[in-house]
Design a protein that fits this description.
The chain is about 5% helix and about 45% strand.
Length: about 325
């Protein structure tokens, strides 16, 4: 099997470059057309599957349908909250070998590792390793994962993050919850509270104090931020074709201790088995670490940026979702 996936801006027709793995710890190209999935692999119903190339990390993708109750919510809330923490750097990893096990009763697992290819900096520099264990049986689904990433500069420093998620479905109701933590203590310095200093330190914003010194603040979308996130949500099938859902996210950055919050409301109407129309509205109440209410312009830069630190912001989106 193989898969090639590119991101396109439907408003302009332009390709969207950059994105996951474009900075800090992991050695990845800053711009590439097939910046999402681009891999080949072998698959067996009894042995599982192995993929080679650029792919979703095992530690993240297995949570997508568990942690979020929103039927069309993958690119709001869950994505924007984890991206603010830096986990967006691990949505996809290049140079990756990933194994996904077959179903073993209600259990399955996945593991992935990627090569940093940093030459003189050593084999470990820029590399990643992670895995996930999941149970999906009857009304219950739970998953736990862990990921470690090594600095591309060959300093020997690394960060790690873990994620837990669970959901329960009863008739027309579904509830979902999740928690994660990013531990980047080795990357803390006097000027870089949330990222490896080699990459994030020079561009970390600072806040002047009355004494004239500067206090560093987290660096969202530049690197990684020591932080914790928790979320809870639910959905209700009003009719077999119409679903209402809501999800709440809270992200607390460790260095300053402030918490940014996001609430998402979603309605989805199924036109057929594979096609649905959705509408959602999202509100963020940001502190120091800014979350986007929706996925903005794809890379959170430029005049269309929707990141507003220390303030409220809203986003509205409608669309048609088709499952091939």
């Amino acid at each position: 099997m193989f898969n090639l996936e590119a991101a396109l801006d439907l408003a302009t027709g332009n390709g969207v470059t950059g994105g996951s793995n474009s900075g800090t710890l992991i050695a990845q190209p800053a711009a590439s057309f097939w910046r999402r999935n681009s891999y080949i692999g072998l698959k067996s119903s009894s042995l599982g599957q192995v993929t080679l190339g650029r792919n979703y990390t095992a530690a993240l993708i297995g949570h997508a349908n568990i942690i979020n109750a929103l039927p069309a919510g993958i690119n709001t809330g869950f994505a924007t909250a984890t991206a603010a923490q830096g986990i967006g750097n691990d949505y996809w990893n290049s140079n990756q070998i990933r194994y996904d096990s077959p179903k073993l009763g209600g259990f399955d697992f996945a593991a992935s590792m990627s090569a940093g290819e940093q030459g003189a900096s050593g084999n470990k520099a820029g590399s990643t390793i992670g895995g996930l264990v999941r149970y999906m049986g009857g009304p219950f689904a739970v998953a736990a994962s862990y990921q470690r990433d090594y600095d591309v500069a060959g300093t020997g420093k690394s960060l790690n993050w873990y994620m837990l998620s669970g959901s329960y479905t009863s008739g027309d109701f579904k509830v979902a919850a999740g928690y994660d933590a990013v531990n980047n203590r080795e990357g803390r310095t006097a000027t870089a509270p949330g990222g490896i200093a080699t990459f994030a330190g020079a561009t970390c914003p600072t806040t002047p104090t009355p004494a004239g010194s500067t206090v560093p603040v987290p660096c969202p979308y530049v690197g990684w931020t020591d932080s914790k996130m928790w979320t809870v949500g639910g959905s209700y099938n009003v009719t077999p074709l119409f679903v209402l859902a809501a999800q709440y996210f809270a992200v607390k950055e460790t260095f300053g201790g402030t918490t940014s919050k996001q609430t998402v409301l979603n309605a989805q109407y199924y036109l057929s088995k594979r096609t649905s129309f959705y509408a959602l509205v999202s509100q963020v109440k940001n502190e120091t670490l800014a979350l986007g209410p929706i996925w903005a312009n794809g890379v959170f830069t430029g005049s269309n940026d929707t990141l507003v630190p220390n303030g409220k912001n809203y986003g509205i989106a409608t669309g048609i979702q088709h499952v091939f």
